[in-house]
Structure formats: structure tokens, C-alpha cells
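Incident log, entry 3
Record: CMP-N-acetylneuraminate-beta-1,4-galactoside alpha-2,3-sialyltransferase (363 residues)
Problem: checksum mismatch between cached and fresh output.
Input:
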Amino acid sequence: MRMKPSRHLLLGLCSMLALGFLYYSSGRISLQGWGRKSLYDKQGFLLKLDGGLPLELIYKYGNLSEGACKPGFAAAKMTAIYPKFTKVVPMFLDPNYKRFSKIGDYLPPFGIKSQEKIIDILLSATKSYGLGEELDSMSCKTCIIVGNGGILANKSLGQRIDQFDVVVRLNEAPVKGFEKDVGSKTTMRITYPEGAIQKIERYEAQSLFVLSAFKALDFNWLRHMVFNQRLQSTDGFWKSVARRVPREPSDMRILNPYFIQEASFKLIGLPYNNGQMGRGNIPTLGTVAITMALHNCDEVAVAGFGYNMSTPHAPLHYYEKIRMSAIKESWTHNISKEKEFLVKLVKAGVIQDWTNGICGAGC
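Fresh output:
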């Protein structure tokens, strides 16, 4: 039986209305989705940081006794606020470092490109690539990064700092004479040629000497230190450098440059500059050390971090009389953007700031 033209017209009109309604509805849904505010900032961090534990972490850590080390805690909290975080990144370079293509694609300080030959020589001489048998075998490690800030002075935190499994110190910051405030234990001292201790007697009796290489020349400098060779020239360094490091090769390490790369480009959001060192795209050594700890420690604390420019007469470092006002705009660092990143970590409880210098009363 053939339909009348009017019925054809009516069915066509109904189909058009139905399609139009579906299109309009899907469009509204789509537009509403696009218009909804993101939960994350441009770096990929959760915008709302209240320090509370997600439900799954409450179940995981809620029954642990007070003061007990919480396995995987720092990485779990970091992942909760930054889902792109990947925990498995070794602290130091080892003979298998070439498996990390992310560092092979970049020149120093963000990678090892063009430095493979000298790195192989260094690693064959040091023969050790971890923290040591005792620490490497621990199922849960607590770590503290001790900054050099004047805020450490007169806090009497020395005993508490020494209770950590791993105590990380930076550059030439002294221990002797300041034990009451900064402790006496040093697991490792991370530095670069210009920041290394120059007076032999100021080195601790036992600690790992860890190079954080910011330029190709730094690897060549480390080769002289490892093989106890006389440094013929200091051309290319921006200030005087240590000419001897009183450590056996087995106590020397190379910090994985991935932490510089990740801190700069991913976590802080500094200028990419075609993957090369440029104005304002190098994180400070303290932030590099914190990034390293997030990947390799179960709990992470800091002390002696934070510059307070509103107190220009306050001491810049705990061990000297230079004032806060001595800080000038750095060509390589972006202190304000770096602080934004560190504030996120403190607010979310990823790290504990024992001297409360990163964000003060703002956290």
C-alpha cells in the first residue's frame, strides 16, 4: 500500500525534529563539558590542595603506628596531586643508564648526550651505583634535604635531622660547628664543581660525593677528582673550583640528570629553550634534590628552604653573615616559579617543611 504524500511529509518532519533534538542535546553536553573548569593547572597539578589523604591512602596508611615509616607515601601523595608522576627513576647513573632515552636526547644539564664515553669511564672506575648495602636493602627510607638557608639558625633541629635514614646536604654548607641546628649526619652531599667544598679538612669523614652536572665540563672535572689527577686549567668555570675531593672512587656518584629535566620542564614549567640551558630554565640544586627524593624515598622532609625577601636584613645562609638583600635576580633560576612548585608540595603534604620557610603561614 502506498503512503499518501502528506504522511511522507509528516514522517520526514518528525525525523528532522528528532535529529535536530539529538544534535542540539549532544552539542549542549559537549559545550557544557568544554566549559567546565579543569581540576588541574597547566603543569598537571591538582588545583585544590588541602593536604588530606585520598580514601585509598587512608586505608593503606591509617593503621600504621605513629612515627612508623610509611612505604611509598611520598610517591603516592605526589601521584594523587600529579597523576603524571612515575616513581621508578634511579637516583644515580649506573652502567645501564642508556636505557633512559629521556636523558639520552638532551645535552647537559638535562641529559647525557655527547657525554656517554666519559660517563662510561667514570662508572667503570667508581663501580658503585647505590646508597650502600644497608640503605639499599631497606624497605622504607625516610629522607631529609637540608638546605642552606639562614632560617635553620637557632632552631636546634640537629637531633631530629640525624634521625632520618638519608640526610642530603648541598654544595659546601658546613656541618662542623653547626651540629646543634643542622645535625652531624651526612649520607650524601650533592654539588657541582663551583659549589664543592674546597678545603679538604671540611669534608665529612663518611658520605657520598654526588655530582650534579650542569655542563659538559663538569664531567671532565669529575674525572680528575675520581682519578686524583691534577686539574691543569679552570677555564670554562664561572668561579673557582675544588681541585681535590678526598673520597675514594667507590664513594663518588653521578646524579641522574633526569631530575633536572623533570623539575625544569614538567614540575616547575620553566622555558624549554630547545632543551638547552637558557635564561631562567635551571632549577636550583635544592629543588633538584627534592625531585630526586620523591622518586627514591618513602617519606621526604626539608629544612632550611625558602627566601623571605620581606626581611632583607635576615641571614641568607645559616653559616655566614651575608644578608637576604644580597640575593639578586638570577640568570639561570626562576625563584618565584620554583617557589610555586614547592608550595604545592607542602600544601598537599607531599613533603614536610620543618623550618616553615617555603610558604610560612600560607600553608
